[in-house]
Amino acid sequence: MRVISPRARVAHVLGLERNIAAVSVAIFLLALGENLWKRFLPKYLQVLGAPVTAIGLFGTCEDFLDGIYQYPGGWIGDRYGRRRALLLFVALAGIGYVLYWLAPTWPFVFLGLVFVMAWSSMASPTLFSVVGDALPKERRALGFTVQSILKRVPIALAPTLGGLLIAAHGVEGGVRVGLLVTLALAVVTLPVVARVAIPITKDAAPTNIMAVWATMPSPLRWLLISDVFIRTCEGLVDVFLVLYAINVIGISAPHFGTLIAVQMTTAILSYLPAGKLADRVGRKPFVTATFLAFALFPIAVVLAGSFAGLVVAFVVGGLRELGEPSRKALIVDLAEPTLRARSIGLYYLIRSLAIAPAAFVGGLLWQLTPALPFWTAGAIGLVGVIVFTRTVDERHAG
């Protein structure tokens, strides 16, 4: 009788197959580095001379690049294999970190963004696909849950450390120290992703982007439409959260880092029970709860008039992650296995391009009054909740 070690037993329970373990560690390392400075980039841009409209445009560029990078990233992952693709994406992101660090004026940060998004966007379809490749359907939500936890633990810790760096060295100095740490972690990440070993599956026949779209079933398309509403809600206010909290409500940078920690801790505590239940009872209730929290978060922020009120709002923000593993598992479940990375890439290409104007529009609304983009976001988010609950049937979400 074969004896299974405690370590192997824990790995099995958590879905930590070798390839998933490798990409999860990579996600953890780069999330740890990026979140030392990522939430403070709007302030960094401001210090480098960017006006509010340019900060809004930065968010729009981020969403635009997130969109146009997704399908090419999926194509690279399917064509050249998961390992080669991930090595390329980490290396490109490293170039972006260097450009952020060297930036003498705010336009250079836009140039750095072109490279930094290689990890957060180009790599996304490949990271999704590794879960689909390595785990059966009934264990995928748990696999995404573990990845999400390892990504969010650094988000819970790093912004507070980043806020302390800013308090000690100023916005410009603190962000640049964080970027040096991130660059070092990117170097460490390269041998980690080199351990990914998944065979390349060749297409039976050449497949173009329209053919990939044709393979996407109706439930996946309706999920995409509702997701566009939800992410438009997020995009309208995301880059302005730090400005609203610091400039309007009047909290400090370390306090804002604490709010991010509250948000991520809430998310982490909800992940494992939600992930286990989603694999047993279906995805839809958890995706619905996530979408509802997305709609309520900006409303809760604008209703908060103090740090205590913002703590409550960021708890709601943490609940936005409750059903994220379920949503990701649902996308992977519905994608054609041989086209998995490209289908995921196409899904995110359409979603990100659709929401790309949101941050810029949020900047225009901010100029009328800082609260307006938050109220508008809440209304759009509620539309997304209604679309999802009315169109994606439970039998398609299980």
What distinguishing features does this structure have?
398 residues; mainly alpha; 18 helices; 80% helix; globular
What radius of gyration results from the CA coordinates? Answer: 20 Å
- Shape type: globular
Uncertain runs: none
Mean pLDDT: 86
What proportion strand?
under 5%
Number of separate strands = 0
Q: What is the number of helices?
A: 18
Helices and strands, in N-to-C order?
A: HHHHHHHHHHHHHHHHHH
The profile of the biggest β sheet is: none
Which structural class do the helices and strands define?
mainly alpha
- Fraction of residues in helix: over 70%
Distance between the termini: 36 Å
Tell me about this structure.
By secondary structure, the protein is mainly α. Helix content is 80%, strand content 0%. It has helices at 6-13, 18-34, 41-47, 52-80, 82-102, 106-122, 124-134, 140-193, 209-215, 218-237, 241-249, 253-281, 284-303, 307-318, 324-334, 340-355, 358-368, 372-391. Helix 2 crosses helix 8 (140-193) and helix 4 (52-80) runs antiparallel to helix 16 (340-355). The longest helix is centred in the middle third of the chain and has 54 residues, at 140-193. It is globular, with a radius of gyration of 20 Å. The model has no long low-confidence stretch (mean pLDDT 86).
